[in-house]
Amino acid sequence: MFTSVLVLLLGVLVIPILDRLIAARRLGFSALLIAGGALLSLLLPGGKSPSSLVLSPWRPLMESELAFKIDGLAFVFAVSMLLLGLTSFSLSLGDEGVEARLYVARLILLAAGLSFVFSADLLTLCFSWIFLEFALVLTEATSSVRRPHAERMAQVLGVLALMMAAFLLDSGLPFQTFLALAVLIRIGIYPLRLWKLAEARSQALPYLISTGSGLYLLVRTQPSSGLLTALGLMAFLIGSMLAWLEGGSPRFVAISQVGYAVLVGSVARPLAAAVNLLLCLGLLFGQDRPEAAGQLREGVRGEPWQRAPLALALVSLIGLPFTLGFVSRWLLYNALPPQSLWILVLSLLAEVMLSASLLRRWLASSPGRLPAAHWAGVAFLAVPLLLFGFFPPLIREGALPDLFHSAEAALWAILLSPPLGGYVLHRWCKVPAPLSARLSSLLELDWLYEPLGRLLGNAEAIFLGIGRAIEGRSYVGWALLAVFLFLLFLW
Amino acid sequence: MIAGPSLLIGLPLAMVPIVYLLRRWEKLAAFLSAVTTAAVAGLCLHLPLDRPSWIFGFVVDLGRTVRVLGREFALLETGRLTIAFVFGVATALFLFARWISQGRSFFPLGLLILGLLNCVILIRHLLFSVLFLATASIIAVFIVQGGRRGSAEGAFRYLMSTILAFPPLLVSIWLMEQYALNPDEVGLIHSAIAFLMVGFAIFLAVVPFHGWVPAIAAEAPPLVTALILTVMQAIVLLLMLNLLGSHLWLAENPRFFWTLRVVGLAMVVWGGFSSPFQRDFGHLWGYAALNDMGWVLASLGMTSPSGLSIALWQFASRTVAMVMGAMGLAVMRHRARGEAGFAQLRGAARRLPFSAAGLILSGLSLAGFPFTIGFPSRWAAFSLVASHVGNWLKLGAGWPLLLILADGGVAAGYLRGLNALLSSSPDPDLKPEPALTSIVILSTILLCLVLSIYPQPLLVCIRSAAGSLASPSP
Amino acid sequence: MFAFLSSFSPKAIAVGLALAAGIVAAIGSWRLALLAFLAQYLLASLLLVQLIGLQVALTKALVGTSIFFALYLTAHQLSKGGWERIEGQSSPQAAFNSAFRLLAVLLVGLAVPSLAGRYPLPLVSPEMGLACYWLGSMGVLAAILREEPLRAGLGLLSFLLGFELFYVALEHSLSVLTLLGVIDLLIGLAIAYLALARRSLP
């Protein structure tokens, strides 16, 4: 089971050697095979049965252990991550000039993601968190992926929160607050999502592995509080509004869906929402192809059936029946208590805006002619999405009821109204472009982060000056030291 | 028959003039210095203390006492481990300095300092230990400046701190001797402890006497900084622990340990919260070292059976981290013509990836971050300190959070540095790092990563060292 | 000779020490400061003649003279390179700095006698104790008020001299005093080295 991680790490050593021996085009195939091998080792007999591995006991000075464990939940996320990796490698087969170090970075990223979901305790999770951050830094160093500095700092805060939670857990004290904070930072919920994704496909895998790890934590820990519900709802609403204003940009769809996952997590089991997010966004990002814009300009259009993967992703995000998105929505609205009318109303509003945005995206897109490698890539994500949609019990976490027999009419009305509302919104409600731009700017919080950055810069100068004075660079510091010594001896 | 103390002091001192004459041929000087220090470390580790041994036709009795002008020099188990540690570290530093020059006087004066530090360890009279330590520290001023023209602020602050540190220790020793003659005069103890604390506080760079650490970290050659902040501070800690072992009234004084806890925590907080505001790797490294030393002192002050072991473990991890950081910073400064500011090193990671990795990893180790060599010992220290501090200071859960945020501050400082190293295009004049230094740094990185997951080999040595030291308790 | 040297009044020597220490801390001219520094060591040696004996006193005088010559040669070499101009000795700023230093010396000088009275040093006479406190305070003040290593270093050596005058009363061991002398010499060398290293600053 843990051989999947070993296979990936072995691939990290093999790829640079192969780079010297085979053509650059074939390198992508090698990376694909390695990722496929990792997936196979996970799926082989006994892949889902719980097993554990203690990497280092750290006794006698500490009671903790460095250990890994696989159970059903970890298995689902591990498979999802590997599928995303397979898609990424497949889609890059058609790209020119992909260097070996890019594949190495992505294999390490996948290994880090798996390490994260296989962590057996909070302490091991701290290690995996840092491993994941290292992998993301490596990805930045070897590609065009750029995370802002503030995002890295936020992740430092996240691992500190996790360490605090681990310490409090060991001490038998309440730890849930810090754990929830760590989850929210890892998952990158609005407004903590500081990583402004570009539309580029190259950013998809790092982003999705990073967010997927956070989603895993969310599903594993299921922190529930009113604050989380409010936070999730706010993020869902604002993300959907931004997506509507910006024509269904994957970046804002991601913000919306992350908020949605947190909302579901605070009320019901969020596994379906989490997996849906990963697979759909993977498909959505996969639509970005360097040559697509050129083909569009030349009027080259693909066959209608070639838009099926995009359609599947959008449909699942909207949450139409026989999709995984529908399963997650069902779980949410079925679990809402009667007094949560405001949650219902606001989440429906968000869904309407999301549906409108996705419909707009569908109408504006044209992927052009798709190469065969692209089909292989999208199949890795599309097939599970369909399978889970038609056969929800495949995701066995929590008892998923028989949807079609137990649903009430009211629930069906709730489930089907957002797609209709989205169509109406798209058709008859147009936001003027200037207002749209202003609203987007307001909601993206640049007006907050930039002054905050300047304030921190000024604070830095002040603290630096104080520090230098106390070091002894000026009379003030020495005078204070003399007074301190005097008081010390007096006391 | 050659007595152990004569050999351990005489060998490095005897090599000083030879290495000094050969200082222009730095590679040869480095080799000779490294061989000398490796030989001393090897002798300490492999020769028994309780009986003579044959070495290259000579009979060497490591445990034999030597009297010079009425003062005894003798090697005990504690001293043996300390000398092995000190000279092991020095070997690594001398070997690396072969590729990245730290100044021509680094090798001869380094050996001289090490010889004097052996005098500190071996002499049985505390007064002379302090005097030899002061002498070694003053000689170190020359290698801190390292032949560099320009600012002498770092070296001067180090000189000033040494001059201000050793007189209180001398007075304290006299007061302790007076107390031994007049046990009824309790006031002597209070004065002795006060002077002792001031002296050690300056030597260990306790806040607010910490100014010399960021100054030398910013200006001195990195390997020299590592030598001072690991080797020399190890000797100071050993002196302190020997004091505790030989003066029971000090070991039983709860105020002393209370002070250790307070100053340790103050260093953790000050070093941690000062780090994110630094704009160059030198100052950042200094504050990270302060933060780390704070944890060592706080662990020592906990007076629990595991406190000493954790403090030693912490110090050992610190040493490996600092040596790795010194190597990385030495290469970067060498390639960047002496610059270590974030602005001057923009994009440098693309030309100097291993040095950058070593430097950043070293900083994160000092911050006690997971997946670094500093994490296991920091986790143990944090668990020990944080669980007691809340009760002791009656401040609830606020203290553990403050301590963890302080460590986060160090990490934040290094992430700022990483951001600069990864950004934009590097200076076109920045040459790539030498292949051999890359291999050495990479090996050290791998060692750190392995030890972060499997610290057990280190723990075996730590337990042995802790067992031989007097375990302090009130 | 011993009788002649012992005939000087400790009080007068202490006053002389105080004056010399004040000059080291306050005066801008490096020549005067170095001469005052030498005078400190010579006067301290006179005190030591009465305290501990001719041999140790002569050693101390020898150490002080050696340090004086090393620092004088260093300062002379620096002054050839326009050190005084670089350090702003002849600028209007220099006058302000001198006034500030004089004020600081006066302020500290006012505090020292009460400190010496409140915390008298054991095993030494009141005049000696005051001299030790004065030397130590002026020495630290001189080190704080100066950026340049040579002038600040004179302050540190003054501080150390004040400490050694006191410590000699506590510890009579020749080996200890010899080591202290070696330390003094090393400090002097280090100060000269740092002063020369700094000279290339713009």
What is the compact description of this entry?
By secondary structure, chain A is mostly helical.
Low-confidence spans of chain C: pLDDT under 50, at least 5 residues?
A: none
Count of distinct strands of chain B: 5
Shape of chain C: globular
Seen as an oligomer or otherwise, the chain set is heterotrimer
**Which chains make the largest contact?**
A-B, 47 and 53 residues
Helix content of chain C: over 70%
What is the typical, i.e. mean, pLDDT of chain B?
90
Largest sheet geometry of chain B: 3 strands, mixed
Detailed description of the structure:
The complex is a heterotrimer of chains A (491), B (474) and C (202). Chain A is mainly α. Chain A has a domain of 33 residues. Helices cover 73% and strands 2% of the residues of chain A. Chain A is built from 21 helices and two strands. Chain A starts with a helix and ends with a helix. Chain B is built from 18 helices and five strands. The longest helix of chain B has 29 residues. Chain B is globular and about 70 Å long. With 202 residues, chain C is an all-alpha fold. Chain C has one domain. In chain C, helix 2 packs parallel to helix 7 and helix 4 runs parallel beside helix 9. The mean pLDDT of chain C is 84. Chains in contact: A-B, A-C, B-C. At the B-C interface, helix 5 and helix 6 of B face helix 8 and helix 9 of C.
Considering the chains and any ligands shown, give keywords for the structure.
heterotrimer; A: 491 residues; mainly alpha; two-stranded antiparallel sheet; B: 474 residues; 3 domains; three-stranded mixed sheet; two-stranded antiparallel ribbon; 18 helices; 5 strands; globular
